Amino acid sequence: MTSIHDALFPVLALILIGFAIRRSQFLPDPFWPAAEKLTYFLLMPAMLIHNLAGKQINDLPWRELVLTVGGAVVASAVLVTLWWLANRHMGGPAFTSLFQGAVRFNTFVALALAENLYGRDGLLLAALGAGCMIVLVNVLCVSVFSLAVSNGTGVSLRQLAVDLTRNPLILGCVIGVGVNLLGLKLPVSVDGLLALVGKAAFPVGLMAVGAAYRTGNLGLHWQPVAVSSAVQFLCKPLIAWHLAGTLGLSGMAAGAALLLFSVPTAPSAYILSRQMGGDHDSMATIITVQTCLAFVTLPVTIWLLR
């Protein structure tokens, strides 16, 4: 139980620090958009390349793991899209927040929990599943932004392809996975640089989330918060559990997969929302509320896993 709170506390604390800094005006308001842009275009891609390059899968059940996490991501995306089609009173920008809140996952929390609960082997399994999810989730989210934030005018396949190929998070994933598949090894100096730059991604991104949060936002955005949280903490773990059992994934590998679907949404969702014209106010609210809820839901999930 302590490991869960130890992994979640830094996330929530950094959000609160960002909120306090913005409220106190310790830093000027123009700092935060600049920090968001730096995180989106440099810090997070560096973190992704460092984490995905050089992972050795050896004899791990990677096929079953990839199918489990990929299937659960797609199923959750279909679920929230069907809900939106049945509730079209919600605008496109607000739907992008709901979509990210239901589909994305907090890599930092998931990997920290996997290492605390299962050791290095569990961390490797979780990182393998996370690598697959990161690429798929970013493709889905960028596609949704291109389609839903078009004010009903639609978007060409060419424009969608451009959005995908220019997205720095997807580029970071592709480079990291490509280095891995080609059997290449990053030079020690380059890997060290990426690791150092990437370490700033989560602190800066989380503080930017806190800086964007406004008291009273929960009442304004209760519907995307409620729906995304229900999918994130209830539907996704159940779908992943069913797929793992169906595909024969068990033991530590199944536990690592389920952890990926039991954590709150990612802080990078806010950065993407700001950069691509989403409803960043509701996105910041979803991230903050889900991080708080995870203090209650994750201990239950871990207890069930054990």
TrEMBL record:
TM stretches of this protein: 38-53, 65-86, 125-149, 169-186, 193-213, 239-263, 284-305
Keywords linked to the UniProt accession: Cell membrane, Membrane, Transmembrane, Transmembrane helix, Transport
A Pfam family this chain is assigned to: Mem_trans
Top-rank taxon: Bacteria
Family annotation (InterPro entries): Mem_transp_PIN-like, Na+/solute_symporter_sf
Intracellular or extracellular location(s): Cell membrane
Topology versus the membrane: Multi-pass membrane protein
Family: Belongs to the auxin efflux carrier (TC 2.A.69) family.
Name of the protein described by the UniProt record: Membrane protein
